[in-house]
Amino acid sequence: MSKRDYYDVLGATKGASADELKKAYRKKAKELHPDRNADNPEAESQFKEVNEAYEVLKDADKKAAYDRYGHAAFEGGMGGGPRPGGGGMHGNADFASAFSDVFDDLFGDFMGGQRGGRQRAARGDDLRYNLRVTLEEAYNGIQKTINVPTSVQCGSCNGSGAEGGAEPVQCPTCSGMGKVRATQGFFTVERTCPTCSGLGQIIKNPCRTCSGAGRVQRERALSVNIPAGVETGTRIRLGGEGEAGMRGGPPGDLYIFVEVTPHKIFEREGRELHCRVPVSMTVAALGGDIEVPTIDGGRSRVKIPSGSQSGRQMRLRGKGMPGLRQPGHGDMFIELAVETPVNLTSRQKELLKEFESLAEDNNPESTSFFKSVKNFWDSMKG
């Protein structure tokens, strides 16, 4: 039986580029993969045929020979091209190799593109540090020193993991590739090398200080600049201040998460501050001046209009919080809480009763409310 043209097998034209051939190959390989064609007894042989065609056409020299001589380029001792239909152990090995190749081609990029290559020295882990600051510190900004328990580079071996700083040697199990392959029937399974854990290198004489890890546990003191305007949830990244990498690998990063503690006087909403200020019934009724604190430690004089009610707000412009790395400040809002007097003396009670008897239209809100209540009751009776 004569062989089909390799370009026809892939569904590609003769002048197709390497990228076009690869795209056509992937499409056919997915379409004819035996796992997707359990009901098609020809799928396995067609799958092998596709792999045979691509094995030739993806190689520039073999492709040139095929374009000139066709299948004859690999017959009669001219090239030793792949044989798709071989039986026995050789046929299984060919199929296993083909399956491994198509698996790598189809999923290699998704899995990280490390086909056949060893891993680099492992990067250190990122660290998280929760830092609490007061509202005053968030207002002004502050320089803080924090102690971070972390892994640092071993000073005895300079991070190499080998005694005396000696260089690691190539792993004999994987020959420095970091991975080993095992063929099981139709499948070739690739695993991380158990001897070197994927690094491709081993240490003959591990460092006694760090036991070959290249890093040791230690607490570090770091100076951190907390900018003005930070809020709860603000994240500050310190590059390279995380855990040291394994065997000389790059360090991770340190992420500082800021929490601003609640304040006894001020309540924060973004760049705005709110302050609830109690005032006496007399001041609220007659009006007057009061002093209120500001977050910068100063004082502001506020004029209370006569007849002020609880919940009334007044704005102090520019007395709020600064924006994080932004110019200007927010505003501060004063909310009045009119306080009812307690522990009255007999004389005070007499004066209040006298005031109540003389009151006419002094309580517009209550007058309006009870008028509405009366109208409601009247409507219910009707």
From TrEMBL:
Segments annotated as CXXCXGXG motif repeats: 154-161, 171-178, 193-200, 207-214
Protein name per the record: Chaperone protein DnaJ
Subunit organization: Homodimer.
Chain residues that bind Zn(2+) 2: 171, 174, 193, 196
Domain note: The J domain is necessary and sufficient to stimulate DnaK ATPase activity. Zinc center 1 plays an important role in the autonomous, DnaK-independent chaperone activity of DnaJ. Zinc center 2 is essential for interaction with DnaK and for DnaJ activity.
UniProt keyword annotation of Metal-binding present: yes
Signal peptide: none
UniProt xrefs under Gene3D superfamilies: DnaJ domain, Heat shock protein DnaJ, cysteine-rich domain, Urease metallochaperone UreE, N-terminal domain
Cofactor mode of binding and number, as noted: Binds 2 Zn(2+) ions per monomer.
Binding site for Zn(2+) 1: 154, 157, 207, 210
HAMAP family, sorted: DnaJ
Gene this protein is translated from: dnaJ
Annotated localization: Cytoplasm
